[in-house]
Amino acid sequence: MRLLLFLALAAPAGADEVVMRIAAVVDEQIIVDTDVDDWMAANPRVTDRRAALEQLIDLEIELAEARRLELRVTADEIDRAIASVREQNHFDERALADALASAGLTPARYRRIVEREILQQRLEAIQVRARAAVDDFPRARAAWLKRLHQRTHVEIRD
User: Fold this and answer.
1) Lowest CB count within 10 Å: 81, 104, 113, 145, which one?
2) How many Cα atoms within 13 Å fall on the side-chain side of residue 132?
């Protein structure tokens, strides 16, 4: 796996504006600035962009492992997870759409975040939870993620 941070995909030569900024590349998966923005919008407790990017890198490494294991999430599973979020927050569909819009998220981007989180939970259930006692889960997850990182080349550019 290859990870390169803070690269910029610029407009054609002579153009003055950046079309899209690549925040990170994990294997062949690109994380762009809007992914970081979306992550921060969906996780309001994350207020530091660097921390958000690091979380997304960890997530992308985990998702690469999920792809390797051929784990999938169906549209129905995503729909059920979103319905659960609506129910927990006492939102109807319009209220959820308004909350997403106020956080700067489109429904499609939110579905992508939900899909990633379901895959992450499924992968952790297979790789970590089955091997760890409940009270030892954070330590087991950290050790497992460290092993995944060791298989990944990391280059940080500031």
Assistant:
1) 104
2) 17
Mean pLDDT by runs of 10 across the 158 residues of the chain is: 35 54 83 89 89 90 87 95 93 92 90 91 76 66 79 57
- The model scores a pTM over 0.70: no
Write the burial class of residue 70 (CB in 10 Å: 0-12 exposed, 13-18 middle, 19+ buried).
exposed
CATH number at residue 118: 1.10.4030.10
Sign of CA dihedral 45, 51, 56, 59: negative
Task: Count Cβ atoms below 10 Å from residue 82 Cβ, excluding itself.
Answer: 17
Calpha distance 47→104 (Å, rounded): 15
Residues 6+ apart with CB under 8 A from 99: 89, 91
Q: In which domain, by residue range, is 140 found?
A: 2-155
> For the sheet containing 2-9, what is the strand order?
29-32, 20-26, 2-9, 153-155
Structural domain count, the chain: 1
**Taking a C-beta distance cutoff of 8 angstroms, is the pair 4, 31 a contact?**
no
Give the H/E segment covering residue 29: strand 29-32
